[in-house]
Prior knowledge:
- By secondary structure, the protein is mainly alpha-helical.
- Helices cover 75% and strands 2% of the residues.
- Strands 1-2 form a two-stranded antiparallel ribbon.
- Helix 3 packs antiparallel against helix 5, helix 8 runs antiparallel to helix 9 and helix 8 (229-258) runs antiparallel to helix 10.
- This is Olfactory receptor.
Amino acid sequence: MSNSSSLNEFLLLAFADTRELQLLHFSLFLGIYLAALLGNGLIITAVACDHRLHTPMYFFLLNLSLLDLGTVSTTVPKSMANSLWDTRAISYSGCAAQVFLVVFLLGGEYSLLTVMAYDRYIAICKPLHYETLMGNRACVRMAAAAWVSGFLHALIHTANTFSIPLCQGNVVDQFFCEIPQILKLSCSDAYFTEVGLIVVSGCLVSGCFIFIVLSYVQIFTVVLRMPSEQGRHKAFSTCLPHLAVVSLFLSTDTFAYLKPPSISSPALDLVVSVLYSVVPPTLNPLIYSMRNKELKDALRKVISWTFFST
């Protein structure tokens, strides 16, 4: 029996146990990681360099891309390194850092998606008040609040999780350190405190979800009443990508944490964890750029300047 004071490493769940499959996993994750870096990096560069994109919506999109880069960089490189070097180990401090960063970045992203829903609501339902309510200072404060809320959320959960005595070994049934899997190693009822915190977090997430849903109910009510087809198309082109990102983020997260125990298995948990921690940061840039002409034009300029400038 071990305890948390004597643990100096954890063993993560391996994707494969043969060398060929380990190298295949490394190659697939490398491709996904590079795609996420390229897509989010291009959006950050485009928004920062194109003055036409210096608006609240794109400012929040830039922050979303930063959070996505952080999320995918927290989990994927370590998993790739473990497959490449044929190991499962992660240090105790490295595991704590992963837990903190994953909760921080995912919590910040959900808060930011809520702020982005508010931005779209004001832009479409209260356009005459948009410049007043969504000024530069207000936008910076809302983005900062999203980051700070994620930070405080992560600080509380990480400190509480790693203060719980662990005596059920050091094997984490996940490819990165995740709170529910670490709680399985607990040897006391102290984990109920963390479960309580998770329930409180779930209530806050539900509140944000209700806010997003109500915002879009009012948005679609206003859009469908617009007499101009061009106006409806423009409104949908700015709202549907955000709605798609929210749906992808929430559906994968909800299934990961609320799936019935009867269908739970290490293989399924592994697939689901990839869906909520790796897929959204990779697909978000594609989702936002598909129907957005301004962003596509800015991205073309960035690509042209990057690859064809002398």
